[in-house]
Amino acid sequence: MHSGAVASRSADQKDSRESRNGGTQLDAVSLAIIEQLQEDGRRPYAAIGKAVGLSEAAVRQRVQKLLDQGVMQIVAVTDPLTVGFRRQAMVGVHVEGDVESVADALTAMSECEYVVMTAGSFDLMVEVVCEDDDHLLEVINRRIRAVPGVRSTESFVYLKLKKQTYMWGTR
Amino acid sequence: MHSGAVASRSADQKDSRESRNGGTQLDAVSLAIIEQLQEDGRRPYAAIGKAVGLSEAAVRQRVQKLLDQGVMQIVAVTDPLTVGFRRQAMVGVHVEGDVESVADALTAMSECEYVVMTAGSFDLMVEVVCEDDDHLLEVINRRIRAVPGVRSTESFVYLKLKKQTYMWGTR
DNA sequence: CCTCCTGATTGCGAAATCCGCAGCCTCTGG
DNA sequence: CCAGAGGCTGCGGATTTCGCAATCAGGAGG
Q1: CB contact at 8 A, B169 and B28
Q2: Is the CB of residue A130 less than 8 Å away from at least one CB of chain B?
Q3: pTM of the full predicted structure?
Q4: Which regions span the lipid bilayer (chains A, B) (predicted)?
């Protein structure tokens, strides 16, 4: 995951803007700009402009708008394992009642980095990042299962991260 | 997902560097720098330096090293849904035989954005991003299940992305 | 205790980039 | 035909990035 929507801040997918379809339709140029930034988030506007055929100022304005609209975000991404978080897991959640309210509750937990509503045997899939086994246990058994509406959960502890990209555009 | 390891490029988690523990130990200053860049990947080095108590040049060198080492990457992250990819899904995979080789095969597919080996009822969890239902069906039924060693799969189609952050450090 | 090395940090100018703004153009709607 | 809005371009001035040489700190040896 994690290539998913842009969390406006530390919070949730604020409005439900365009989770529906694609909301603001992006033209080919904006797509090209995004591709450039997917390769290098710090690439200078002038270089991007040259690549997509636009002036430096125009690129700057477009990027700012994409950022403001929440269509994209430029951030540093790391491997939690190299930064002190020893345990990560994907947790499948079975919900009874309103799924969205449960999702909101999980979204509020800082340990949950990724929350998505799904179709299938799980109603929600959540990625949690913890410092150690105790922490992971605490989050799953005490916090997540304590949320009203959570019927049961199933965990998949990460053994090894094999791939993580943000370059869909380039294919 | 997706806050996971840093794909060196378009490829996979190259070496298995430190999937083990945390490899190169990061000191508090580097952590602080990463936190700054998790908030804004384009923040100027001088501003970061002021925040972490280091000169502009020192920050620049540290960032460059973190990038070179593959500890972090600075990129644009979007919500695939707003960029034309209509279908996303998490796929749980049951493997017989060598899990790693299957993981490598999946990693090679451009539609698989995220591949992780897990403990639990699934041996692998894969996030796939497709343009439409046909494409998704093709990827899951023809491509993934065709990989030698894949015994069976279970899909969880994304209905709505609720949260996605990269700010674990700030808590 | 002194010296040699290595690695990280700092302090600069010079070059490149970012930023705000005014002017243009195009498209839409009175 | 005339606003008005939106998007682009050009252009200085302020900032930031870059490359480098000098400085510092921390061992390893002698």
Answers
A1: no
A2: no
A3: 0.80
A4: none
Task: Go through chain B and tell me how many residues it has.
Answer: 171
| Residue B7, burial from CB neighbour count under 10 angstroms (0-12, 13-18, 19+) | buried
Chain B, 13-52: which CBs lie within 7 Å of strand D?
Answer: 44-47
Are residues B76 and A74 in contact, defined by beta-carbon separation less than 8 angstroms? yes
Q: Which amino acid type is present at position B7? A: A
Q: Which residues pair with A157 in a beta bridge?
A: A89, B119
Which pair of tokens denotes residue A165? 């990209």
- CA B68 – C1' D23 distance (Å)? 26
H or E segment and range at residue A72: strand A72-78
pLDDT in tens, A87-140: 999 999 999 999 999 999 999 999 999 999 999 999 999 999 999 999 999 999
Q: Which residue bears the tokens 């609209």?
A: A69
Cβ–Cβ below 8 Å for A4 and B80:
yes
Going by C-alpha positions, the residue among A6, A12, A169 that lies closest to residue A73 is A6
Q: What mean pLDDT is reported for chain B?
A: 85
